[in-house]
């Protein structure tokens, strides 16, 4: 076991874990942050996406040894108390939340994109959304939510 220290949602934490344990397991089992979901364990669905050092990362395959010293944001870290982040609000307003299983990962993907590029093109949004699987919808509402998120983030 190793002690790995990182910042999660603005709070510095140290966990004791194996270096090759996956970030998703530590988030869910040790830190009780359950927004990131287990979907595929092979990088193909995106349900486990979190932001590590400003980049969207799939936590199901992200080894804890790479988390040492990292800044990690999960969907739980986006809202300010009961005030939702503009991306979260946009998804609700667009009706882009169905069962909700994939939603946190998609929101975190968009968060990373919008923090690095506040005015992405529709092609940029499509490329980001193509990294995620949703079994409930044809993606129209999700794209509407992403477009609305761009608008909301730029109103801040």
- The structural class is alpha+beta
Please write the string of helix (H) and strand (E) elements.
EEHEEEHHHH
Q: Level of helix content?
A: 25-40%
Distance between the termini: 43 Å
Question: What is the total number of structural domains?
Answer: 2
What would CATH call the class of the largest domain? Alpha Beta
Set out the fold topology.
Layout: E1 2-8, E2 11-17, H1 23-30, E3 49-52, E4 55-58, E5 71-73, H2 86-93, H3 103-116, H4 122-129, H5 140-155
Helix pairs in contact: 2-5, 3-4, 4-5
Structure, explained:
The protein is an alpha+beta fold and 156 residues long. It has 2 domains: 2-77, Beta-grasp domain (Ubiquitin-like (UB roll)); 86-155, DNA polymerase, domain 1 (Orthogonal Bundle). The protein is 35% helix and 16% strand. It has helices at 23-30, 86-93, 103-116, 122-129, 140-155; strands at 2-8, 11-17, 49-52, 55-58, 71-73. The protein has a 5-stranded mixed β-sheet with strand order 2-1-5-3-4, with helices on both faces. A hairpin with a 2-residue loop joins strand 1 (2-8) and strand 2 (11-17). Helix 2 (86-93) crosses helix 5, helix 3 (103-116) runs antiparallel to helix 4 (122-129) and helix 4 (122-129) crosses helix 5 (140-155). The longest helix is centred in the C-terminal third of the chain and has 16 residues, at 140-155. The model has no long low-confidence stretch (mean pLDDT 96).
């Amino acid at each position: 076991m190793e002690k790995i220290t990182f910042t999660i949602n603005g709070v510095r934490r140290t966990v004791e874990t194996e270096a090759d344990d996956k970030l998703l397991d530590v988030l869910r089992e040790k830190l009780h942050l359950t927004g990131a979901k287990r979907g595929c364990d092979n990088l193909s669905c995106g349900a486990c996406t979190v932001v590590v050092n400003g980049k969207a990362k799939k936590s199901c395959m992200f080894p804890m040894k790479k988390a040492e010293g990292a800044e990690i944001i999960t969907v739980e870290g986006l809202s300010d108390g009961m005030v939702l982040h503009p991306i979260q609000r946009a998804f609700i307003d667009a009706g882009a939340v169905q069962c909700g299983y994939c939603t946190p990962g998609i929101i975190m993907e968009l968060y990373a994109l919008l923090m690095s590029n506040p005015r992405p093109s529709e092609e940029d949004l499509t490329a980001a959304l193509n990294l995620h699987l949703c079994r409930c919808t044809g993606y129209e509402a999700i794209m509407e939510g992403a477009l609305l998120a761009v608008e909301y983030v730029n109103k801040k």
